[in-house]
Amino acid sequence: MPILPILLQAHIIMGAYHYDGTDWTLYENTEHPIYKVTELYEVSPSNVWAVGYDGVIFNYSGSAWNLITSPTTDNLYGLFMLSTTDGWAVGNNGVILRYH
User: Fold this and answer.
1) Computed over its alpha carbons, how large is the radius of gyration of the chain?
2) What pLDDT score was predicted for residue 15?
3) Of the candidates 7, 8, 2, 27, which has an alpha carbon nearest to the alpha carbon of residue 17?
4) What confidence tens digit (pLDDT) does each residue in 56-86 have?
5) Whole-number Å distance between alpha carbons of 36 and 1
6) Residues 97, 36, 94, 89: is their CA dihedral positive or negative?
7) Could you give the 3-state DSSP secondary structure of residue 53?
8) Is the dihedral of CA 85, 44, 23, 50 positive or negative?
9) pLDDT at res. 32
10) What are all long-range contacts of 66-69, with beta carbons under 8 Å and residues at least 24 apart?
11) How is the beta sheet containing 57-60 ordered, strand by strand?
């Protein structure tokens, strides 16, 4: 009996979602491409940092995501914040960024 390949269709839902305790809501903002995020770091519920593809850096201030000017266009994959004003991000091509 021959083995037939089975093709599955996968749907990748890109984006960021916020859970308010009851429902999940897709965060949609064309100015801030949050779908590019690869790493999040929560300092507190009102201070969350994110890095990602093309060097994007975001900071959540408790009410909105803010795009932070990035000195690189290399993909960023790692993030560690020591405090709300001091942190590190690392990425492709040996990129190491410090925020302070």
Assistant:
1) 17
2) 64
3) 27
4) 999 988 888 888 999 999 999 999 999 999 9
5) 45
6) positive
7) helix
8) positive
9) 62
10) 66/32, 67/31, 67/32, 68/99
11) 37-44, 47-52, 57-60, 65-68
What does DSSP assign to residue 3?
P
- Rounded to an integer, what distance in angstroms lies between the CA atom of residue 64 and that of residue 54? 21
Residue 11 confidence (pLDDT) above 50: no
Q: How many helices (H) and strands (E) does the chain have?
A: 0, 9
Percent pLDDT > 70 in the chain is 76
Average pLDDT along the chain: 83
Residues 6 or more apart in contact with residue 18 via CB below 8 angstroms:
24, 25, 27
